[in-house]
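Table 4 source record.
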Amino acid sequence: MMAPKQVYVLLFNARTENEGIHTIQIGDKQTVLMFEKEDDATRFALLLEAQDFPTPTVEAIDLEEIEEFCQSAGYDSELVSEGMLAMPPETNLEKTDWQPDVKKTEEPEISDLDRIRRQLENLL
């Protein structure tokens, strides 16, 4: 059987700065599931939602492009053939590392907020 030219993957926060791809851990490697058929990817996404995952988006992507991404990111990839019932693992990670280098914005201190509020009130 010939490999498809286009596959379907699951993305979280699609088309945002915090976009992430769904992976499963097999051994010590993160693996991107590439679905041959959109229906199978959608079914898997619904199973993830049932496990309280954020809602994933099913996205079509060129097979070579996703394989290159996986290689550059150090991920494995697995093609889920049409009709193969892929099931999410029973446990999931609480911490995501979609962009581990992105720093969280610091919350201003309450005293700073009070000072700014007083300054603004004085302007009135």
